[in-house]
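Hi R.,

Here's the chain you asked about this morning:
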Amino acid sequence: MVRQQLLQRASALMTRHALQPSLRNTAQRRLASGEMPKLTGAADNAFNRERMAVKQHAASSSDLWRKLSLYVAVPSLIIAAINAKNLWDEHWEHWEHLPPLEERIEYDYMNIRTKKFFWGDGDKTLFYRAETLE
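And here is the predicted structure, written out as tokens:
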């Protein structure tokens, strides 16, 4: 008995959903239409005309921002990346001309410590890495 009731409910739900147009088909039809329909008869009123104008403005505005993103922002990012790479390379070319770290003069104003760090030997910072000096 319970099984028959469940089958009847399921068949009623399936027939109800089969008769209603699905949202997916509706969305596909709306996205597929490229131009705005002409308003005629009772649909030609101030509210619908304003709504159509807003839709057309939104379409042109989104098209403008898509073009700006593709043709202005992406090339600008590429140019900025190339510039950053060139500056990086120039910086390290400059460091090649300097003497090694071990041979540089240590001035009195460099590496001033008023008290020792409370970890390790007290002279190395928290981010000290010995392999960077090699």
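One quick note: DSSP finds three helices and no strands in the chain.

Cheers,
M.
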